[in-house]
Amino acid sequence: MAKYTILRDMSRQNVAGPFEAAISEREGAAPSSARIEVESLDKRDIRTLARDPQVRAIAPVMPVTLVRPVDMEGAQPEPQAAATGATWGVQAVGADVSTRTGSGVTVCVLDTGIDAGHQAFSGVTLVQKDFTGSGDGDKQGHGTHCAGTIFGRDVDGTRIGVARGVTRALIGKVLGDDGSGSTDGILSGIQWAAVEQNAHVISMSIGIDLPGFVRQQVEGGMPADLAASAALQAYRANVRAFDALMEMIRSREVFENGSVIVAAAGNASRRQVNPDFEIGVEMPAAADGVISVAALQQPATALRVAPFSNTFANISAPGVGVVSARLGGGLLSLSGTSMAAPHVAGIAALWWEQILTTAVPATTARAAVVAKLLASATTNTFAPGVDPADRGVGLVQAP
Questions:
Q1: Its family (predicted)?
Q2: What is the mean pLDDT of each run of 10 residues along the chain (399 residues)?
């Protein structure tokens, strides 16, 4: 039997007496309460679960992987020497001149963990949770780099963090030490951050590994054409599961602030080979309600979309030659939409700080942050001919 992720809405439990209305029918019902389960199921089990009113989605467990950095000419992959001032990414998004710092905002990074001893995270309370079984801590470096861009403190005179006033960060290790994981871990990580920890911002630089799922089926003896069909069915089911979880999280905004969820669009396009070699945003960035982020590069004159960056993203941010925290200490330059998404997550934290200091009702706070994030993006720094479908509403900007 195959393993499946089961998404339950525990608020749908009927705890009413024999002559009372069900709780979901009463005025002032509790918000949706997500629970993620993983079970081995056969077709009969699936049919039975599908009739359970608590079950919102059932999806085969699929492999996921980090959105791996891309080698780019001019983007140094080795540790960077200390520079004076802020990185080009921090400057491009206007964080270096913003009066906001992310103070009072809780951010979450769902990735490979974090190097908690790195000087970039000095003074930050890190709440770590491992969803992989490999233990807390980052052995890969990807999560450390992403976290550094969001809320890292200055390292040897270089400002790397967009929201360096954040003092509490949630670190969900959803990818193991080899950079791989599974969809149930991602769903559980989102549920933990948004529902249990009330994160204001969640950042993910992760993609569903569709080719990896096909390989698993073929290695298990399934013919290649059937394996491809099974992968597409599993992908569709997981899209529905992510969408259902996002809907449940949004339903909680009546009771809580809500969470802005940001994700990397993916690095699978190949425009440097052929301008038409581009694909759309990958999951989970493509899920309903997730802000997908494209990567920008900085040539001599004006911004362009990186050739690897997937199209149809919502917004864009610096993603080539991004200097941030290096595993074990110091700095490292990497390129990818993985590096772009943390810039947007950091800016979301700045907007959260601004919204929380105003009279905006808590029930509309998340929507206000998303509106500010998208409406304030700029397009006046792009090179002529950049396709709006590739850069989204524009370059993210700090308040």
A1: Belongs to the peptidase S8 family.
A2: 93 55 47 86 95 95 94 52 77 97 98 98 98 96 98 97 98 96 97 95 96 93 96 96 94 85 96 94 95 92 94 98 97 97 98 92 90 97 95 98
What strands, in cross-sheet order, belong to the sheet with 34-41?
34-41, 2-9, 55-60
Instruction: Output the domain CATH number for residue 246.
Output: 3.40.50.200
Q: Is residue 54 part of a domain?
A: no
Instruction: Determine the Cα–Cα distance for residues 184 and 195; give it in Å rounded to an integer.
Output: 16
Round to whole Å and give the CA distance between 46 and 49: 5
Q: At a CB cut-off of 8 Å and minimum separation 6, what does 55 contact?
A: 6, 7, 8, 49
Please check whether residue 218 lies inside any domain of the structure: yes
Domains of the chain: total: 1
Contact between 7 and 56 under an 8 Å Cβ cutoff? The reply is yes
Print the domain residue range for 177: 63-376
pLDDT of 1: 82
The upper half-sphere exposure of residue 308, i.e. CA atoms within 13 Å in the direction of its Cβ, equals 21
Sequence letter at residue 108: C
SS3 333: strand
- In a domain? residue 332: yes
